[in-house]
Amino acid sequence: MINVFQPSLGEAELAALSEVFASNWLGHGPRTRAFEAQFADHIGAEADSLLFLNSGTAGLFLATELLELGPGDEVVLPSVFFVAAANAIAATGARPVFCDVEPHGLNPTAEHIERALTPRTKAVMVLHYGGDPGDIARIAALCTERGVTLVEDAACAVASTADGRACGTFGDIAVWSFDAMKVLVTGDGGMLYVRDPDLARRARVLAYHGLERSSGFAGARVSARWWELDVQGFGRRVIGNDLTAALGTVQLGRLPESIDRRRAVAETYDELLAGAEGIRVPPPLAAGHTTSYYFYWVQMDPLIRDRVAASLLEQDVYTTFRYPPLHRVPIYEAGDTELPGTDEAADSTLLLPIHQALGDAETRKVAEALRAAVAEHRESAGI
């Protein structure tokens, strides 16, 4: 099976894990702090503003806690978004308000965001679809103008930039995901960025049981009774550990070559699908933008999209659509929500395999199978 996503792991990752084993310290420790510092350097931020967590989802939930969301508050986000974001908002009692996206690029514009703002809007969340920064600079400016907190879910955008600035640093809070299917993988894991130093310190406390001071070995150097607890607020344990951080450090080092390979796959698709009747490839990047090439998507007539996906699966080519619109999910469904761009994109879009382990022959197989399937089903549908 040719997978949509697939991690790339090797001897360097094994060696890093062996070093952690040999140290006999598996939990949150020096390798975790080193990974935070290295990732901070990668995005051009201060190390103290970053916190390695056990998942990107934990970062989203932590972000909503930092914002102190509650009943009566609203958070605007595109409907094309992973469900974890809406869950994190709704869990606080606040209301997710879904905005539309541009149907070809699947990112919202500043105008889409602005139309969804109300006096109850406390924050805006954006997702850089497939790694494309989208309209992030204008959205950030809009949020600043309106006094609304901007949260970036940069799960797709680990190496994406807009005018030389890393995605994730435009907002007040940002989250990256390093799960097993991302560009940079740690098995499970995520990174939280908090611009405000006081809020960043608060995030560290909330991420480890609400403890203002460690009650373990580290606390022995600052407290006569280091085993006693100093808890000023409720928290949970969502911190990362040295095992997964060791993987992340190696993966971060190989990130440039991973992006280069993904770019090559995307360019091959562009070339092989150019001029194919009934197939629309992703839009070109805006000037000054770079992408992480997390998704490569094609669009076709909604009448044949599902049949094309089934035909490719029969040939061991797995495709999918991320992310199913949240305004159609039963728990969030709103009958009066009209998002035509989102609906158009959701019914016509298919993600093709793209990852750094995808070979040239596999890339050609996918493109050729897609062209043939689209042609076949267009003919049978009389399109």
Automatic annotation (TrEMBL):
Keywords on record: Aminotransferase, Pyridoxal phosphate, Transferase
Keyword Signal part of the UniProt annotation: no
Positions of modified residues (N6-(pyridoxal phosphate)lysine): K182
Single Gene Ontology BP annotation: polysaccharide biosynthetic process
One Pfam family in the UniProt entry: DegT_DnrJ_EryC1
Residues annotated as the enzyme's active site: K182 (proton acceptor)
Cofactors required: pyridoxal 5'-phosphate
CDD domains: AHBA_syn
Entry keyword Transferase: yes
Single GO MF annotation: transaminase activity
PANTHER family: DTDP-4-AMINO-4,6-DIDEOXYGALACTOSE TRANSAMINASE, TRANSAMINASE
Family stated for the protein in its record: Belongs to the DegT/DnrJ/EryC1 family. L-glutamine:2-deoxy-scyllo-inosose/scyllo-inosose aminotransferase subfamily.
Name this polypeptide is given: DegT/DnrJ/EryC1/StrS family aminotransferase
Organism: Streptomyces tardus
